Amino acid sequence: MTVRKQDCGRRVVKLSVKILAAVLIAVICAGQAHAAAKYVFLFIGDGMGTAQRNAAEIFLAGKSAQSSQTAAPRESQLVMNSLPIAGEIGTDSLSGVTDSAAAGTALATGRKTKNGAVATDGAGVKYRSVAAIAHERGFKVGIVTSSFLEDATPAAFYAHSDSRTRRYEIGLQLPESGFEYFAGGGFSNPKGKDKKMRGLIDIAASKGYRVTSTRTGFDSLTPGGKCIAVSPKVRAGYMPWAIDADEADKNDISLAEFVKKGIYLLGGGSFFMMAEGGKIDLACHANDAASAIREVIAFDEAVKTALDFFLEHPDDTLIVVTSDHETGGMALSVIPDDSMAFYGAMSLQKGSYQRFEGSLPNPGKEGVGSFMARARDFFGDFDGLGEELSQRKSVRDAFAMTATPKKNRPVKSAPYKKLYGPYDPFTVAYMREMNAAAGVTWSTFYHTGKRVAVSAVGAGSESFAGSCENSEIFTKLLAALGIE
Ligand SMILES: [Zn+2]
Questions:
Q1: How would DSSP label each residue in 187-252?
Q2: Are residues 60 and 206 in the same domain?
């Protein structure tokens, strides 16, 4: 397990100067007149609050400090944090704390709705998305996600459903959109819940989509026509975890590559691209900080790809990076000077919580000692904590719960839910203790109502500064596209 190659601090500073220069030139060329953006990127980090961004940044600072053996650099390390325009949005839906369906709907269509509704009012009234409107006006459209294609966030841009759980119905609407590029994850339920329906891939192909799920197929995609490019390593529709990715495996395709390919395929004319880091949310639901950080970094690398394009077309490109909501109530008690220790702790974890859970044997066969040894090996023995954790009551109680058959666990009781949520008790308890030792604490396994950050650069980006509601992002995007 390794982390993908990152920019060092100095390079990010250079990048900031480049961005500033590009912005100045664009402003001078535009002569103060408001020029519409020809190329628009909307990046959505699902579940990505400010703490998730900061954690990834401190991790990168620690990494670069460790490799250079100098004091931790304080300058911005995440590309998204280096963008010149900063704002924030409120995320609540009509149901209170939002889910990804209502939040996706607000961002995509400008309408607050009930949780579960995908670009509708939850009772049959459909709302049009910025992607659909742009498409009608001649923009090509790309939808990229590391989650599955019928998941709530991407779906809000191309489909309508009163319930996000009707995945087959949502999947059927994908080819009807006529959008030119879908990429990243695959279909989670290609033949419907009972697996008896006609395959969604077949249907998309019959409607003129070229579908590929191999590296060779991906590499051979050329502009023109419509396509669905699925990760070769898709599982239940999801792209693999960034923390589990094998860099040496050339068959793997990163989120950044999917965005870069989208630019190549759509870039002949004007385009609108939505790209989602869909698994930040999943990692935060499970309170798995190390996996969340790697997902934020993979997402940021995708933003970097768009920024490279912006630097070539500064007066015609708009990049907006935001989130649909925060997940987990993540809190950091790490200061930048602790970044090396933080990186040390977080980089020890060998893979995602899912991989660890999946590797666990039957607890009846192997006792508590074996589980503790496995956890110490997988999550790392940061600060010699392994021995101490193997004796800690919270971890031993969690093991006892894991060893209890599921039907005998008090899964519906409030204390159980607060301690373990829907996860394997031992895995989640161990991970929470490791995270806390590194300076990351979590308050929930669910979404929170925290406001989330907006960062932007390029044509029309000024309007994204300051504080507003998630639904206003839609209006600002339309204005930037020159559609009033
Ligand atoms: Zn979620």
A1: -SSTTTTTT-SPPHHHHHHHTTEEEE-SHHHHHT--SSSEEEEE-TT-BTTBPPPGGG--TT-TT-
A2: yes
Q: What is the whole-number distance in angstroms between the Cα of residue 291 and the centre of ligand 1?
A: 15
Q: Determine the Cα–Cα distance for residues 432 and 67; give it in Å rounded to an integer.
A: 28
Residue range(s) defining the domain that contains residue 420? 350-441
Q: Is residue 344 part of a domain?
A: no
Is residue 18 a part of any domain in this protein? yes
pTM across the whole model: 0.93
CA distances (Å), origin 117, targets 13, 114, 126, 274: 42, 6, 10, 19
Q: Which two tokens stand for residue 94?
A: 């009509």
Question: b/e for 452-468, b at 16 or more Cβ within 10 A?
Answer: bbbbbbbbbbebbeeeb
Task: Give distance in angstroms: CA of 42 to centre of ligand 1.
Answer: 19
What is the mean pLDDT, run by run of 10 residues, along the chain of 484 residues?
40 59 57 75 98 95 80 71 97 97 98 98 98 97 98 98 96 98 96 93 97 97 97 95 89 96 96 98 98 98 98 97 98 86 94 95 89 95 88 96 95 96 96 95 97 98 97 97 88
Same domain, 317 and 245: yes
- Indicate if 113 and 190 belong to the same structural domain: yes
Distance CA 448, CA 469 (A): 15
In the reported structure, the alpha carbon of residue 421 is separated from the centroid of ligand 1 by a whole-number distance in angstroms of 13
354 shares a domain with 324: no
Residue 378 sits in the same domain as residue 322 = no
Our count of domains for the chain comes to: 2
CATH code, 321: 3.40.720.10
Give residue 450 CA to ligand 1 midpoint distance, Å: 14
